[in-house]
Amino acid sequence: MRFFPLAPIGLFTAALLLAGPAVFAQQAPTAPATATPGNPTAAAAEAPTRPGPLFKLGTGLSDGSGYGSFLGLSLPLVLGVEQQLAPGWTATLNGSSLWNIGERRNSSSTDREGLKLEQLGLDAGIRRYYNQEKRRTKGRRTGPYEGPYVALQLNNYFRRDLPYNFSQRAFEYDYSSLTARWGVQRRLGGRGLLDAYLGAGVANSRIYRFNPAASRYDQSRVLDLGLELGVKISLTNKR
Asked: Considering the domain boundaries, does residue 4 fall inside one?
């Protein structure tokens, strides 16, 4: 649930941090062991394994969701993936769609629209999970995709019902936002996942000004500062 439409400052590629090579202790000089299908070498057995990706499908209070007597009910459907890059570091990629039902056809009518797709979104980010050891010593559940985190997130949104776009057919680029987030991700039962976050950032919002010389509204963009709040509940591929 956004407190304001955080608009993006343009699309760009986020730099991902890669884990450095692992350092293994040297053994006393002996003849190297030969790896066979039934007898892997000690080095191969001790090599750290990176966990597989976490796939998520969920909804919640985020990405423009909400309810109004005129606008009806809007809820997002989010499909995402999170991959560990190094211990404590992950990268996220999400695609979202915002669905609306019950919007009034016009201000003087009580007739309402059926289910329709309002918005598409694409976002990517980097997360840093922290306090994993502290949580482990207290007996709390830990894991590569669980616990408190800080993140840098780039969001991009596309709509087809933009102001003064009366065709309302083709999706057009709306805005982007770059936000710093603090959040907590926790397991819910076997395959459930709760992700709650609070963020602040900048966005390239659209503004419209009336041009009396041309008798029309002209569009421009400004950088906005704002806050965002989100709560997502998802199903995952991992227990």
From this structure: no
